[in-house]
Amino acid sequence: MEASAGAGGNAGRGRYRRKRYGHDAKGSDRENEKHLKTSMVNVDVNSAVIEAFQGFQVELDTRNDTYERIVKLSRDITIESKRLIFLLHRVTGSDDRDSILTDAAARMLELRTSKFLPLAKELKGQDPYQFLRAFSPGLQEYIESVTFYHYLADNQLASLDSIQTGLTFTLQDSNGNQNDLPKNLQVKNSAPRKLPDECIGNSDVPPSLKTLSDENKQDIQNRDVASEECLQGQNCTTDKAVAAETFDCESLQTVSVPVPPTEYMLGVADFTGELMKMAINSVGSGDLRTPRIVAEMMRTIHDAFASIGNIPRELRHKLRVLRQSLQKVETACYTMKVRGSEIPSHMLADVFSTAGTGDMFCMDDNEEFYD
Amino acid sequence: MSSTAEIFNNFQDYLNADYDLREEIRAVVRDLEQSAREIQTTLQAIHQPSKSTGYEEICQSALSMFSKVKENYAVLATKIPSNQYYRYNDHWKFVTQRLIYLCALIVYLRDESLVSRETVASMLGVKTNREDGFHIDLDDYLMGVLNLTSELSRLAMNAVTAGDYSRPLRISHFIGELDAGFRLLNLKNDALRKRFDGLKYDVKRCEEVVYDLTIRGLVGREEKAE
């Protein structure tokens, strides 16, 4: 009995090697022999120990493969999120503010369906914390871009819940289609969409354009749902009947990419860096209002961070950076206040570009305020 | 949408809860470490052959101490929220590895075989699979087994000192088998890999002992023939 089990194991091992190195059967046998010779002791290949380790090999490889797939997805998410942030920075001084935001929203949805949905499926039934290190960079970058987008669109900090909702996917089938669609849209559109001109002065959006962008959004969401369905079509057939009859969140299968609060806060801390960039850029384009408004938001976040205790180590580092960014923006506001009356606004940009390297922005890098 | 203040208040609550839970885990893990130390001290008697006690008695007294370990693991298991094992497992990783090593040592001394993951799990009163609850991580199990090899290579030498010439051969064979087993694994460049790199020294030490015995003709005829 043992011999047969061992033979099975052997075959498995041979198969594995072929797959990995493209060796033929003979080569793998030779490899085997070399292996056992090097250990000097005559090892019985059919022994219980070897058999157990063949099981471990499979288990370890499966886990490492999952990990690698997640790392890959995370990297793609990071790249796309960075591009989104660049896109959002173009809002500064742009006349076509709304179309940029709509474009960003579309790409965010695309990112969710194409990358986060597979990620959620990888994590399904797993302990997310086991793989957190694999997808944490992507997740943080995504949170950064989403909070930035929401700040530009709604002028407030996107909550953890709203981000988590965005990353929760309902697996649907074609039968539940009719029912699911309205609810799905309702959930996603429930956040009030304010006119975004509080943040930057120059956006005088005609109402027609705004409704157009909202329609666009809906279109995109429809597409989003549709593509999810075809993705789900093949592998979610079991609860078809259930989902069609009782339409409930519980009866539908949901998968989600969990967002741990710490990751969210790390993303928010990164987001303040983007605010700083935006403030400085807007000065460059002659916008004197934005830095003040941005500084206010950064100050709110900074104060909130300062008030909480038991901060994890990685966050503490980011808060030091946040403090420096805030000082930079505050210095910019100060300069504008002091010199704004003397220098024509179109020349302020020059003042900043020269001041950027000078004493004005020389921050005390060693300052450790939060320790 | 909630206000910024609300978001940060929630975060503070979350951090506080997390901190409290970690404190509780630390308390349980301290107890576990204490038990592990006691068991290890008991088992160290195998290296002092002057005492007339056999391995069997030493194993028995060590085994009797595992009941407290089981209790502690049961308490620990209740504290960990489902699917958050890997969020906190840094706290008990080392003590678990050490306890796995102790289990493996006991099982080896009794049956001269490699302890299975199922046996370790039942000795510690935990589960084998992640899906079933508080479980033993594969990495921790393998780490524990690697710790066993260094202890066994030491035992091989001490057995010779005590006049037990056949044991080193069996140990050497066993470690050789483990070495072959670990070579099957595709290890990543992590802690396990680093520890595995030390295995070859254990193998070497055992082989040297066997060599010394063989050239002096201290090994039984039948074993040499093999």
UniProtKB/TrEMBL annotation, chain A:
<comment type="similarity">
    <text>Belongs to the translin family.</text>
</comment>
<keyword id="KW-0479">Metal-binding</keyword>
<dbReference type="InterPro" id="IPR016068">
    <property type="entry name" value="Translin_N"/>
</dbReference>
<dbReference type="GO" id="GO:0043565">
    <property type="term" value="F:sequence-specific DNA binding"/>
</dbReference>
<keyword id="KW-0460">Magnesium</keyword>
<dbReference type="GO" id="GO:0046872">
    <property type="term" value="F:metal ion binding"/>
</dbReference>
<feature type="binding site">
    <location>
        <position position="274"/>
    </location>
    <ligand>
        <name>Mg(2+)</name>
    </ligand>
</feature>
<dbReference type="InterPro" id="IPR036081">
    <property type="entry name" value="Translin_sf"/>
</dbReference>
<keyword id="KW-0963">Cytoplasm</keyword>
<dbReference type="Pfam" id="PF01997">
    <property type="entry name" value="Translin"/>
</dbReference>
<dbReference type="InterPro" id="IPR016069">
    <property type="entry name" value="Translin_C"/>
</dbReference>
<feature type="binding site">
    <location>
        <position position="144"/>
    </location>
    <ligand>
        <name>Mg(2+)</name>
    </ligand>
</feature>
<dbReference type="GO" id="GO:0005634">
    <property type="term" value="C:nucleus"/>
</dbReference>
<feature type="region of interest" description="Disordered">
    <location>
        <begin position="1"/>
        <end position="35"/>
    </location>
</feature>
<feature type="compositionally biased region" description="Basic and acidic residues">
    <location>
        <begin position="22"/>
        <end position="35"/>
    </location>
</feature>
<feature type="compositionally biased region" description="Gly residues">
    <location>
        <begin position="1"/>
        <end position="12"/>
    </location>
</feature>
<keyword id="KW-0539">Nucleus</keyword>
<dbReference type="GO" id="GO:0005737">
    <property type="term" value="C:cytoplasm"/>
</dbReference>
<protein>
    <recommendedName>
        <fullName>Translin-associated protein X</fullName>
    </recommendedName>
</protein>
<dbReference type="InterPro" id="IPR002848">
    <property type="entry name" value="Translin_fam"/>
</dbReference>
TrEMBL record, chain B:
<keyword id="KW-0460">Magnesium</keyword>
<keyword id="KW-0963">Cytoplasm</keyword>
<comment type="similarity">
    <text>Belongs to the translin family.</text>
</comment>
<keyword id="KW-0255">Endonuclease</keyword>
<dbReference type="InterPro" id="IPR016068">
    <property type="entry name" value="Translin_N"/>
</dbReference>
<dbReference type="InterPro" id="IPR036081">
    <property type="entry name" value="Translin_sf"/>
</dbReference>
<dbReference type="GO" id="GO:0046872">
    <property type="term" value="F:metal ion binding"/>
</dbReference>
<dbReference type="GO" id="GO:0004519">
    <property type="term" value="F:endonuclease activity"/>
</dbReference>
<dbReference type="Pfam" id="PF01997">
    <property type="entry name" value="Translin"/>
</dbReference>
<dbReference type="GO" id="GO:0043565">
    <property type="term" value="F:sequence-specific DNA binding"/>
</dbReference>
<dbReference type="GO" id="GO:0005634">
    <property type="term" value="C:nucleus"/>
</dbReference>
<keyword id="KW-0238">DNA-binding</keyword>
<dbReference type="GO" id="GO:0003697">
    <property type="term" value="F:single-stranded DNA binding"/>
</dbReference>
<comment type="subunit">
    <text>Ring-shaped heterooctamer of six TSN and two TSNAX subunits, DNA/RNA binding occurs inside the ring.</text>
</comment>
<dbReference type="GO" id="GO:0003723">
    <property type="term" value="F:RNA binding"/>
</dbReference>
<feature type="binding site">
    <location>
        <position position="151"/>
    </location>
    <ligand>
        <name>Mg(2+)</name>
    </ligand>
</feature>
<dbReference type="GO" id="GO:0016070">
    <property type="term" value="P:RNA metabolic process"/>
</dbReference>
<comment type="function">
    <text>Exhibits both single-stranded and double-stranded endoribonuclease activity. May act as an activator of RNA-induced silencing complex (RISC) by facilitating endonucleolytic cleavage of the siRNA passenger strand.</text>
</comment>
<dbReference type="InterPro" id="IPR002848">
    <property type="entry name" value="Translin_fam"/>
</dbReference>
<keyword id="KW-0694">RNA-binding</keyword>
<protein>
    <recommendedName>
        <fullName>Translin</fullName>
    </recommendedName>
</protein>
<dbReference type="InterPro" id="IPR033956">
    <property type="entry name" value="Translin"/>
</dbReference>
